[in-house]
Amino acid sequence: MQAAWFLAVGGLRRALGIGALLALAGFILGPLATLLVWAFAGAWLFPHLVPEFSLKWWVYVLGNADVGKAIRMSVLSAPTATLLSALICIPAAYAFARLEFPGRRLLLLSFLSANAFPKIGLYVSIATLFYRLNLMDTFAGVVLIQLVNTLLFMIWIPTGTFRGININLEEAARDVGAGPLRTFFQITLPIAMPGLIVAALFAFIAAFDEAQGSLIVGTPNHITMPVLMYALVLSYPQPVGAVFSVLLSLPSVILLLVTQRYLRAGYLAAGYSL
Amino acid sequence: MRGVLGFALVLPPLLVLVFLVILPAISAVITTLTPATGVVTAAPLANYAEVLGTRTLRTDIVFTVIVTLVAVAMVFCLSYPLALYLRFVRTRIAALLGVVFMVPLFVPVVIASFAMITFLVGHGLVSTVLFRLGVERFPRLVYNATGIVLTEVWVSIPFAVLILGAGLQAIDDALIDSARDVGAGPLRTFLAIILPLNATPTMITLTLLFIAIFGSFTIPYLVGGNAPQMLGVTMTNYLTQYLRRTESATMAVIAFIIASVIGIVYVASVSRRERAAP
What we know:
The complex is a heterodimer of chains A (274) and B (278). By secondary structure, chain A is mainly alpha-helical. Chain A has helices spanning 12-39, 56-62, 65-98, 104-110, 113-116, 119-132, 139-164, 167-175, 180-209, 212-218, 225-235, 238-259, 265-272; strands at residues 41-43, 52-53. Chain A is built from 13 helices and two strands. The longest helix of chain A is centred in the N-terminal third of the chain and has 34 residues, at 65-98. The radius of gyration of chain A is 23 Å and the shape is globular. Chain B has helices spanning 2-33, 46-53, 55-88, 92-100, 109-120, 125-132, 145-169, 173-181, 186-197, 199-214, 218-223, 231-240, 245-276. Chain B has a single domain (47-276), classed as MetI-like fold. At the A-B interface, helix 1, helix 3, helix 4, helix 5 and helix 6 of A face helix 1, helix 3, helix 4, helix 5 and helix 6 of B.
């Protein structure tokens, strides 16, 4: 890496490296570390640096029936929304990347509106629609709300990925006699897989994280974990929220570890530069 | 024929978008243009005049814009050097930093907000450490604008570093080295080569950060104070607590208009790159 001289001047490199590492690590890991300590604290009184450790809040949280219901609801709804999103969005992304049709760019950009219009303004109208369709307080209603949040990731990132694949590879497959479907499944899809996995990861986190709309559509019988978290943060002792946070982080942490090797900046960036 | 196929493939997600985003949005806009019940002669923009005429709401709009701008500026100032560092330095420290800065990407926003509260609150870790160091008086760090900005920054850093970093990755090393060969120093090289070549990813990062932070709800709801508040929270309160649907929708449309102005910058910078490409 020859161009490294660029930051190597006048001790700048070392100062920047160590200073940034400490400051950033402190700022990023500090809140999570505090949370983790709280999850195992029986009591943590100011100004002690270390709390008394205890597992009593875990017993309390895991014994709570609402928590069990919320975990089941989240574990069922978020993967359903992600899968549904992948099924409808990946073919669309391929079309955006490879096929010419009128209004292609405008339609691709229109998916930004799902994230630009203030959600609460939408949920008011969506609630009216859902009442009419008997979707309020149903599993399907919650999945649909989560689906809206996944669209941008599942369209834009795969579109960028498909566009990044050398078209000659597909044309070569067609030249030796493979049909369009066979070319897609045997050539395009395997090459695109890492980008699609990154998209699915972001889509899952977006679906799993959704709270504002699920609160309106899912109350009172279809409460997901983030919705329950609002109540826990606002009206329970701090360790209860901390224990629940650890539970709520588990799926993303596991997914992160499993998909770690696919996480390259390029896939995300390719999606957002259209 | 291929045009029809393309459109058919795009149709399913488009239908979801139309029924769950675009039609509800239009319906919200229509609500805001309909005068309140009982008032027959009101002008079509009466609801907007009322919202913009309410002092607390005007304060909230200004507050939202300022908090968003400060947060975007802070994210940018932290992320650009970090992206540069990760692009040009290949050491173990850099690799470790690369892992640390990704962490917030995988923490649900609800948890990030709660973690920030426990970290910054009056008897939290930061206060305890400051107290132990002998600092007993310091400004409140949470349940106000400071808390919102810090949490937004925490949540947004990975996204900004990823997009900026991918842009920097695309700059050829040879170009940077040749700048030195003709006698340019690091600052000159940065201003004349790197900054202009990375302009499009920079614009994309800034606009998407603005839209995301401007419309956020969970962070200001949990980490912010009572008043002034960000629009996302005010809208929700108007709807769920005061049951004033029209005002809530009117604020949503105003917020969307502000976000759209920024969205246009995004579209413009993206299309300029597309035209520039061969």
